[in-house]
UniProtKB/TrEMBL annotation:
It holds the Pfam family HGTP_anticodon. It comes from Corymbia citriodora subsp. variegata. Its EC number is 6.1.1.15. GO terms for biological process: prolyl-tRNA aminoacylation. One of its GO terms (cellular component) is aminoacyl-tRNA synthetase multienzyme complex. Residues 148-380 form the Aminoacyl-transfer RNA synthetases class-II family profile domain. Residues 58-71 have a biased composition (Basic and acidic residues). It catalyses: tRNA(Pro) + L-proline + ATP = L-prolyl-tRNA(Pro) + AMP + diphosphate. This is proline--tRNA ligase.
């Protein structure tokens, strides 16, 4: 099982529980169930059964293509067509025409496409990251690289391909991936003697070389990371950034002499992940540990940052940092001599302690889902490629060419003032578009601040500023030109802070402490995640999942996104910050079917 699947798509449940749940539960991790997920992609050709599966599963994707065409028509001024009922009244033609509260999946897709973040590709589950989203990933990459280099981590690059023998070396590990491994079977028209896998993750790729490179305790710690993409040939409903067949991430793999060294690193990395969410993306997360049921297979323990999507009331795993213990070093024979052995003394070799940790482009999807609104993307200033757009206004048919040129010169001057203090700014001199069209366009793209500059502003020596993160009526203010170089950076920081504070309020308001079982499911249905006193056993988690599935009656009338209605709650994490109120050996586990006492407050929720 992937160590470093971590940041990403899901933490897979271990062993039997996995098989038990996947076939019936749409919320279950994306693996297992070989019966419905034929893995083998043989150089474009598939077996008849594969094709059938593919057609069935890929249908939603085709519908999405239609969505894209609609988007194009919309921007050309035509009717967006389709699902008339859901359309927002009076929505700008180039804008989002489905309300976030009404049809969340459709809204999400439109925001990404019309906000110019990504495009669909002709292979289902694969997406093109356009410059606006690649910029965000690059910003995270640059920030995180500095942090991990300071910890002694070095970047490297292992090959994309894995031989079948090596991939199969560790049975329980590969078990979790077998159904979604993509294989290369041909070179040109020549069939390969042995098929070659495309990495679903890199444990088996890297650890044989760790065994070779780590010869002495002096070679420790070994701390390597790679920025790469991996392939998991999923057949579940794909979702941009959240569930994709190829995805970009970083995967760190380290080896330590002592458990203490490994333990410390696990938490240091987790804190960096939390900081990426909180400080760069303005997204609050909860830090905690996974239960045994949800922890990374083969690992010793898993720590996690857990986000929350208010629009759907679902939790989302944001990134995970695992201590693998000595399990993998035993499998791969990664050992060193005991440094405490005296000259000539024979001591048993020590197995190294290993960690793995990963964060994927999923972070971008979480950010979009949380901040975006019915006018499109809302980007936090710290990761926005364009932080400020300056739009000329007040130019009419009567405006002379000289006056127009003068105004444009002034705007270029304003942009230079801002660039000099490090603000990423664009001037919008596009011909043939009205200011109103341009306003909508920058709003759709989530640019945090718009400055308007026309004859009135020029005469009064000020600019009109419009914040993207506030409702239109409250968004405007004026800034004196003499104060531009300090006021704009300050305003961008204020926007960053306000985005976080609003998201944090929604996060806090929807994390409920539940001490009566009868409140649990109603609270989930009100789009909350719930902290409950829990015994932390797997059996009890399974019972809670079953008993929190919605019944058909409950679903009636309430529009939900496609998965939520039938989904049971699973444990998201055991928060590091534990509220008071649990008396060990006295406080009961909240699940009425369970006779055990509570070990800790555990957060449960419906989740991605
Ligand atoms: Zn229990």
């Amino acid at each position: 099982m992937s160590a470093a699947e971590s940041g990403d798509l899901t933490v897979r449940s271990r062993g039997n529980s996995l098989k038990k749940t996947t076939s019936t539960d749409a919320s279950a991790p994306t693996t297992g169930d070989a019966s419905s997920q034929k893995p083998v992609v043989e150089n474009g050709s598939t077996t008849a059964q594969d094709k059938k599966q593919k057609q069935k599963k890929e249908k939603p994707q085709k519908e999405k293509f239609v969505g894209k065409q609609e988007a194009k028509q919309g921007s050309g001024g035509g009717s967006a067509g389709g699902k008339g009922k859901k359309k927002m009244e009076g929505a700008a033609l180039i804008g989002i025409d489905v309300a976030k509260e009404v049809d969340f999946p459709e809204w999400y897709q439109q925001v990404l496409l019309k906000g110019d973040m990504l495009d669909y590709y002709d292979i289902s589950g694969c997406y093109i990251l356009k410059p606006a989203s690649q910029y965000i990933w690059d910003a995270i990459h640059a920030w995180f690289d500095i942090k991990i280099r300071a910890m002694g981590v070095k970047n490297c690059s292992f090959p994309l391909f894995v031989s079948e023998d090596v991939l199969n070396k560790e049975k329980s590990h590969i078990e979790g991936f077998a159904a979604e491994v993509a294989w290369v079977t041909h070179g040109g028209s020549t069939k390969l003697e042995k098929k070659i896998a495309i990495r679903p993750t890199s444990e088996t790729v890297m650890y044989p070389y760790y065994a070779k490179w780590i010869q002495s305790y002096r070679d420790l710690p070994l701390k390597l990371n790679q920025w790469n993409s991996v392939v998991r040939w999923e057949f579940k409903h794909p979702q941009p950034f959240l569930r994709t067949r190829e995805f970009h991430w970083q995967e760190g793999h380290t080896a330590h002499l002592t458990k203490e060294g490994a333990d410390k690193e696990v938490l240091d990395i987790l804190e960096h992940y939390a900081t990426i969410y909180e400080e760069l993306l303005a997204v609050p997360v909860m830090r905690g540990r996974k239960t045994d049921k949800e922890r990374f297979a083969g690992g010793l323990y898993t720590t996690t940052v857990e986000g929350y999507i208010p629009a759907t009331g679902r939790g989302i795993q944001g990134g995970t940092s695992h201590c693998l213990g000595q399990n993998f070093s035993k499998m791969f024979g990664i050992t060193v001599q005991d440094p405490s052995a005296k000259e000539g003394e024979k001591k048993e070799p020590l197995f190294v302690w290993q960690n793995s940790w990963g964060l994927s482009t999923r972070v971008i999807g979480v950010m979009v889902m949380i901040h975006g609104d019915n006018r499109g993307l809302v980007l936090p200033p710290r990761v926005a490629e364009v932080q400020v757009a300056i739009v000329p206004v007040g130019i009419t048919a009567k405006t002379s060419d000289d006056d127009r040129e003068l105004l444009h010169k002034e705007i270029v001057g304003l942009a230079e003032v801002l660039r000099a203090v490090g603000v990423r700014v664009e001037t919008d001199f596009r011909e043939g578009y009205s200011p109103g069209y341009k306003f909508n366009d920058w709003e759709l793209k989530g640019v945090p601040l718009r400055l308007e500059f026309g004859p009135g502003e020029s005469q009064g020596h000020f600019v009109t500023a419009a914040r993207r993160d506030l409702p239109q009526k409250e968004s405007k203010s004026t800034i004196q030109i003499t104060e531009l170089n300090t006021a704009v950076p300050a305003l961008l920081e204020q926007i960053q802070k306000d985005l976080y504070d609003r998201a944090k309020k929604a996060f806090d308001d929807h994390h409920k402490h539940i001490t009566n079982w009868s409140d649990f499911v109603p609270s989930l249905n009100e789009k909350n995640v719930c902290l409950i006193p829990h015994c932390l056993t797997e059996e009890c988690e399974d019972q809670i999942k079953d008993s929190s599935k919605r019944t058909a009656e409950e679903q009636s009338g309430v529009p939900q996104d496609e998965k939520a209605p039938s989904m049971g709650a699973k444990s998201l994490c055991i928060p590091f910050e534990q509220p008071a109120g649990i008396e060990k050996g006295v406080t009961k586990c909240l699940n009425p079917q369970c006779t055990r006492t509570a070990e800790a407050w555990c957060m449960f929720g419906r989740s991605y």
